[in-house]
Amino acid sequence: MGDLKINERLIVINPGSTSTKVAFFTGDEKQWVENIAHPADELAVFPRVVDQLDYRLDALRRELHNKNFDMSGVTAIAARGGLLKPVSGGVYAVDEVMLEDLSEERFGQHASNLGALLAHKLGSPYGIPSYIVDPICVDELEPVARISGLPQIRRRSVFHALNQKRQARWAAQELGKKYEEANLIVAHLGGGITIGAHRRGRVVDVNNGVDGEGPFTPERSGSLPAADVVRLAFSGRYTWEELLRLINGRGGFVAYLGTNSAREVEERAAAGDEEADLIFTALCYQVAREIGACAAVLAGRVDAVVLTGGLAYSRRVVEEIRTRVGFIAPVLVFPGEDEMAALAEGVLRVLRGEEALRSYQYEGVGWANMEEKVSGDN
Ligand SMILES: Nc1ncnc2c1ncn2[C@@H]1O[C@H](COP(=O)(O)OP(=O)(O)OP(=O)(O)O)[C@@H](O)[C@H]1O
Ligand SMILES: CCCC(=O)O
């Protein structure tokens, strides 16, 4: 008998704020990936992110058409998952309730909200099922981690779940353990920075990346003294939108140094720019401090600290953090991220029976009073 292996044929869709990435996989093999750019002036005509749906769908269909791509043989579509109700990590079938929540932007605006909507519109005419994997709203916080200090404000989990969980799996494998057996601290260091305490496969605490928790980042302010934020908000100097933009988009390196490129800041520091040097060091310091907090969450029982994302390519970033947190556990470095592969891998685990498929409609860790304000400002 020949070794006959029929590979799954997957389309992967990942909408970002200024582009939509699309890739084609046969089994684990990435055949091609395209980055469809959406110029700012074209996006500017859409009042809400969800209004971009047909525009992005047309661009996606055009790309596939230009490639003479045949949709009929596609097994499944894997899409980036956005701001939905809080759910456990895993792979979710795109269902009507999910589509409705995303169409209505019930849990906030985010480019990744378009993933499931695009996948469904593209696949359903052919009967192709769509899935999302570890969406940014994965929320596995323990009750104690939800307490903010003010009953009016409840902590929620919004983070780089897709990359964090993928790198955590790699790290566990390197340690000879299953993800579900390991205690890990994963620091995703990109344009946004989120640092999660992974206890035996669940992210029991993590800084909310989009609402201004945790370290500052190349373009976000991170946590700020609350009373000073109130003073700024009522100073008359900023509109609501401007202030939110300072926290998310124009904070961090952008605010201090006018660039969101960590690479550029590092180069400026190396060339003798003292301000750049101080701010670069401060970012590493704040990341280390957050990692230390996660070590306390895990009661010191930490198998490894994992550094990932674009900033983990920087030797200086890695060494500055390692110097401060190396006493906690070995530091493993997996620079960059590959969200397209992470999405494909998740759906393949389900198609191959290695992981159970989850239902959005029937699942959700839930908050009380879900209808109260959910951030619509991201
Ligand atoms: N070799 C390097 N040295 C220093 N910084 C680097 C290097 N490579 C990338 N970076 C920095 O990494 C940052 C971008 O990281 P990344 O690509 O993970 O972010 P993103 O995908 O835009 O945002 P996010 O990770 O929040 O989704 C930039 O500030 C970039 O300058
Ligand atoms: C990816 C969602 C979380 C963040 O941007 O910080």
From TrEMBL:
This is Probable butyrate kinase. GO terms for cellular component: cytoplasm. Its EC number is 2.7.2.7. It comes from Desulfofundulus thermobenzoicus. One of its GO terms (molecular function) is ATP binding. The keyword Protein biosynthesis does not apply. It catalyses: butanoate + ATP = butanoyl phosphate + ADP. One of its GO terms (biological process) is acetate metabolic process. InterPro entries: Aliphatic_acid_kin_short-chain, Aliphatic_acid_kinase_CS, ATPase_NBD, Butyrate_kin. The gene is buk. NCBIfam families: butyr_kinase (TIGR02707), PRK03011.1-5 (NF002834).
